[in-house]
Amino acid sequence: MEKLCGAWKKYKGEVKKFHFKKYRTKKEMLKNRPLEIPEIQFRKLIRYWSLSEIMALSNKNTENRSKQTCPHRMGSTNFGIVRKQLDEIQHRIEAGENDEDAFISVLGKDQPG
């Protein structure tokens, strides 16, 4: 379900980027609409994206994303596993193991790349 939601979000972003933002006039947008979207629905979408409140929100979100310097990246490791590993490292350090040995014993040696 998460993959489906992500794919839908990506698709909507691509439609907006390539069929709304790319053109200046409503006529150009309709002429170059994605064929899989019926014209009546695309007209409603253009009307929605053209609302001043929606455009202001979109611009604000774009500005905020541009300010991010460290985007979140976790990969396939969930936070529960990371938290457990951090706790294990902390317990080993408190038990007298040095920092580097505690880290290596829980997470393994550094891998190239």
From TrEMBL:
InterPro entries from the UniProt entry: Probable_transposase_24
Q: Which organism is it from?
A: Stylosanthes scabra
Give the top-rank taxon of the lineage listed in the UniProt record for this protein: Eukaryota
The name on file for this protein is Uncharacterized protein
